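Q: Got a minute? One more chain.
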Amino acid sequence: MRGMPPIRDAIWDDLPSVAAINTAAAPGVSVLTLNELEDLWHRATVFWVAGGANEAAAYLIGFADSVQYDGEEFGWFRARETGFFHIDQVAVAVWARRAGLGRALYAHAARAARERALTRLTCGVNLRPPNPESLRFHAAVGFREVGRLETREGCLVSLQETLLDGAA
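A: Always. Here it is, folded:
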């Protein structure tokens, strides 16, 4: 892969590529059907892809704290705090890993949160099934565990957050 692909809003034609990335990233992320991805594409605060017009290399789906969304991890944070931007899913295609796309998407999410006057990024990382690579990544970009959640799917999730610049 040459250079960093642009990060842009996903379009409907991106959904099959996103579905392929999503499936390949399991069990690190929950597998989503095309219908579920389309629903998230309509409802998410942001649904971005990194990549050109013909192929996504990575994606990020995120929700501002004020959005109506029934995700379990999002609900856990919403019951406890305000001022957050929740990264619901992020995944990078196998062929594009280790190129900085995850960091670039998270930096993009931090900018989007700041533009909305939100003070923290939140996410969930699977502990069961284990996802040590994601845990290392999140620690490296400043996230810390603030709780744990047993999900309806039977996963144990580390709920994590990082404060954005200037947040107390």
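A: The two ends are 39 Å apart (CA to CA).
Q: Perfect, thanks.
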